[in-house]
Amino acid sequence: MAKVRISQVRSTIKRPIDQKRTIKALGLGKISKSVEVELTPQIAGMVKKVGHLVSVTEL
After folding, report:
1. Which of 13, 39, 58 is nearest to 26 (CA)?
2. Can you say whether the dihedral through the CA atoms of 43, 49, 50, 52 is positive or negative?
């Protein structure tokens, strides 16, 4: 699997609770925080759900 860097670029204020929980599950929570993870189908689904709040770059 490919590794990707996921960075939070927008706030979760005024977002539905499921989007807030998805951000937490990805290991994010503050703007500009980044995590490096393997791009599994589960991670890809979470990124798709909150794609408007995060940026993704391949490593």
Report:
1. 39
2. positive
Report helix angle 17-25 to 41-49, nearest 10: 140
Domain ranges of the chain: 3-58
Q: Which CATH superfamily is domain 3-58 in?
A: Ribosomal protein L30/L7 (3.30.1390.20)
pTM: 0.92
User: What DSSP assignment string belongs to the chain?
Assistant: --EEEEEE-S--TT--HHHHHHHHHTT--STT-EEEEE--HHHHHHHHHTTTTEEEEE-
- The answer to whether residues 53 and 10 touch, using CB atoms and an 8 Å cutoff, is yes
For position 2, what pLDDT does the model report? 93
